[in-house]
Design goal:
114 residues, mainly alpha, two-stranded antiparallel ribbon, 76% helix, globular
Length: 114
């Protein structure tokens, strides 16, 4: 049940971020929920590999390259899900930053489950 709540809230956050960031489009709840699901899968499987492969760039940029990795993961998820589009790289970076911040804030406010 907790997984479904997390999925629903992440989908809702995708809809909110798409309304705020120009160039990021989510066409309804189904696309948002699928986008959140695919983003979770991409972050669990592809992101760790990308982070390891980009360690030298991450060190040189003092960790700022991780914003690029996050944006690429968001664009990858948008490329797979119909109805979820990101038009350009700047909307991907801004969207990934805003989505991450909102996600951290929302789940910090939720009560701990036992």
């Amino acid at each position: 049940m907790e997984f479904l709540l997390h999925l629903f809230l992440s989908g809702a956050l995708l809809l909110v971020v798409a309304r705020i960031i120009p160039g990021m489009e989510v066409e309804g709840w189904l696309a948002a929920i699928l986008g959140a699901l695919v983003l979770g899968i991409v972050n669990a499987i592809v992101r760790p590999v990308a982070v390891v492969l980009t360690i030298p760039l991450t060190i040189v940029t003092l960790g700022l390259f991780l914003f690029v990795v996050n944006a690429l993961m968001l664009k990858l998820a948008a490329g797979v899900v119909p109805g979820f589009r990101i038009l350009g790289f700047l909307p991907a970076i801004l969207g990934s930053i805003l989505f991450s911040l909102m996600n951290m804030l929302l789940f910090a406010l939720l009560p701990e489950s036992s």
